[in-house]
Structures are given as structure tokens and as C-alpha cells.
Amino acid sequence: MSDFDTIIKNGLIITAADRYVADIGIKEGRIAALGQALGNAAEIIDADGLWVMPGGIDAHCHLDQPLGDGAVMADDFHSGTRSAACGGTTTVIPFAAQQKGQSLRAAVDDYHRRSEGKAFIDYAFHMIVTDPTETVLKEELPALIEEGYSSFKIYMTYDDLKLNDREILKVLALARREGAMVMVHAENADCIAYLTELLEACGKTAPVYHGEAHSTIAEREATHRAISLAELIDVPVLIVHVSGPEAIEQIRWAQSRGLRVYGETCPQYLMLTATDLDQEGFEGAKCVCSPPPRDEAAQQAVWQALESGVFQVFSSDHAPFRYEDPKGKKLHGETACFKHIPNGIPGLETRLPILFSEGVIKERIDATRFVALTATNPAKIYGLYPRKGTIAIGSDADLTLWDSRARTTVRNAELHHDVDYTPYEGLELTGRPVLTLCRGQVVSRDGRLAGEPGFGQFLECGKPQPARPRGEAKGF
Ligand code: DUC
Ligand code: ZN
Ligand code: ZN
């Protein structure tokens, strides 16, 4: 009889803390041993020359999310997790979104129905709280947090999603009481509405003007306000999809004062700029997301904040809408004002290869920081650590083997999502995930799918754990 189901031999293991060469023994989906000469196994995988990292955790993506305006997301749990797996990700955390007037429990139940039996990799849920009624705050949220839904997102913009400051304070107080993590979409709704009105009045309705309406000042103000509200309640908060230096300065300022403020950024803020919204015809709609991509100086600021530890999390914010689709980007036709274009871009499969190539290979961040940003910190912050997000005895055998020398070119035709474009078409990358295992099972090999739908399990999340930024700001 074999000692292990699988042994991965001779790989360079990289965690958020260390790198060393060792063999990994896997038994019943978990890491059972780390060392040398481990014994025998039903399957031996030779990882000589490869880097072995924890499977990616994409802690911010949208799959099959019901939307109020008639738009339909291109990816569900089947195509979304298929795409994630092929890009080296082994856990996704999309959003069970409450519609105003709906019970939060009903939103979560509905989301379970949407995910059941479809996922290729493991998944948990964040919730989106849009209607914090007394029942939601006193009964539903405490019960749901206890049951393993320990994080939720709130919005400061979008008429059908946003909370006012008083509602935000109530939600933050609840999070403090129950030990939940609050993610904030920080943009000032009134600034955006005001600027949109001005732009529309002078006929500036093309996709490029989305970038002007969603001003950096609107993002900075809301980021500062979210931090202040969290400080008032004395609760940790995570600012999602940060686009540039204005919001980064607010987060850095808060961290330097010892506040428990976390930051997340995404590939679009490293790889795209406002000029990508300014394309022939309606093509710029493909890159409409909120906050929007900024300028090259903003990209540099985002890189620097990744390197210096202002950001703890790097997510895709995959929000999939097809371009050639009356329920996608062209919901209101090709002449529609930017304000009617569904917000979001795809990125589940390209998230890790982009950060690996542009970050690690180009030596902007080191490989341990890559692991922290893409797996370990999200696992800690969202209560999945140490089951997920690391390579340690007892952890799930969620592993991605990287060929750090392989060169690829991003082609939408080769991606596994159901979106009809990628904003990164033609991008040349170095480094590629060549084998991805979720709980010891191979889910992708050489960029191709190798798993089965329904293998992915729902994960109950525990209470958030601290993920310290470099510099060890006090209070974390
Ligand atoms: N916020 C997100 O988190 N995703 C897509 C669009 C948005 O506004
Ligand atoms: Zn958002
Ligand atoms: Zn999002």
C-alpha cells in the first residue's frame, strides 16, 4: 500500500514566508508530509525546475450575479471556475447579492442554487448588503456570519446598491460585534452623478467619459470617509479595487496611524489606462469598470503600493459581460451613454499570470509577496487560513506548479471564460501555471482543463485573521 496518494517531488516550494526545495506528500486531499525521501505514492509528479506555490485565491469576482437592470453575466459557476482553474486559482469568493427589499438569507439560498454541482474548484461566498433593515442587522447577518459567511461588501455608489453613512455605521458596528470583514466600494455617488450630468449635457457620452465621471477625487473622498467611519466604530475594513495614488494615500495614512485598514487592487489598474476607454466606436466599453483605469503615474503608484505592503490582496474583480451581446456591454446599444454600460471586465484566468510576469519576473515584487497577495492574505482576511492559502502539513493540497520560463501570449480564444474578449489580448507573458491541484486533484494542466464540474466544494469561512502589512503598522 502507498504511503501517499500523490508525491510532488523536487519542486521549489514558495510560501508567503519561505522558499525551499522539498517533496510534498498528499493524502486524502491534504498535505500530509513535507520533506525528502517521503516514501511511495500512487502517483509521483516530478516538479524539478518548477515553482510550487499555494493555489490562488481570487477573493473578489462576480459569477452569475443577478442584476436589476436586465444585464446578464457571461460566466456562471461552471465557466467561471473552469477559467479560474486554468489560470492557477483553486478557490474563488464571489458575491451573494441582496436586492433591495430581499432578505439576505434568500439571496444566499439563491446563490447556493446557482452554484450547486457546477464548480471545478472550491468556493466561498461574500454577501453584498444593500438593505440593512433591522431584521437583517439583528437576525440575518449574525446568523449568517456564524454559519460561515463572514464577509460582506457594501457600496457607497450605485443607486440600487449604495448605503448612506448612517447605514454604513450600523453595518460596521454589526461587523465589529460579530467579527466580520467589511469590504467597501469607495466612490462618492453624488460626485459621480453631478459629473455625469455635466458630461451628458454637453454630449460627452462615449465610454471614455466614464473615466472622467468616476473622478479620482470621488474615489479619494469616499475612501477617506470609509476609513473615518470604520475608525469611529473601531473595526477593520478593506477598501476594494483601489485604482491610484489618491486612494492609496488615504489607506497608507490610515495604516501609519495603526488603523486596521486593508487594501485590494486588481490587474486592470496595473495594465490598463484611461486611453483604453478611448477606442474606435464603442470598443472602449470593453474596459469600462469602476473605479476606472487611470494614467501611467497611477499604475506606478499601484505597483509601489503592492511592493511596499499598502495592499494585502490582489483580486481579479472579474465582472463578465460579453461585448457583442444585448444583455452585455451593448445592453442599451452602441450609442448609449457611458452610464448605461454594465461595469466590469473579465480577468479570472489572467490575474495570476499577469502578476507573475509583470510583477515577479520583472522584479517589481518578489515571489513570496506574490503568494501573500494572491493566496495567503486573502485566506487570512476571509477566514480560510490555514486550510487554504499556504503549503503546510494539514492544509488542503491546493497547489499551483509554475514554469517560470514559459512564454505565452494572451489570446481570448484560448481562455476558458464565456466572455467574448479579454482586455489583455496579445499581451506577452513569462511564467505559466503548468499544473493546478485542488485538494490533491488535478484541475488544470498546461492551461487546459483537467477537472470535473461539481468537484468544487462550498467553504464555510471562519472569523477574519490579521494579515500584517509590511512595516508592521501598529494595531494589526
Ligand atoms: N464594482 C465591482 O466590485 N465590480 C464590478 C463593478 C463595480 O462597480
Ligand atoms: Zn465594487
Ligand atoms: Zn467587484
TrEMBL record:
| Alphabetical keyword list | Hydrolase, Metal-binding
Q: What is this protein called?
A: Dihydropyrimidinase
**According to its UniProt record, which protein family does this protein belong to?**
Belongs to the metallo-dependent hydrolases superfamily. Hydantoinase/dihydropyrimidinase family.
Q: Which cofactor does it need?
A: Zn(2+)
List the InterPro entries: Amidohydro-rel, Hydantoinase/dihydroPyrase, Metal-dep_hydrolase_composite, Metal_Hydrolase, Metallo-dep_Hydrolases_sf, Urease_alpha_N_dom
Pfam families (alphabetical):
Amidohydro_1 (PF01979), Urease_alpha (PF00449)
Q: Which residues form the Amidohydrolase-related domain?
A: 51-443
- The residue ranges of the Urease alpha-subunit N-terminal domain are 4-40
NCBIfam families assigned = D-hydantoinase, PRK13404.1
Q: Which organism is it from?
A: Litchfieldella qijiaojingensis
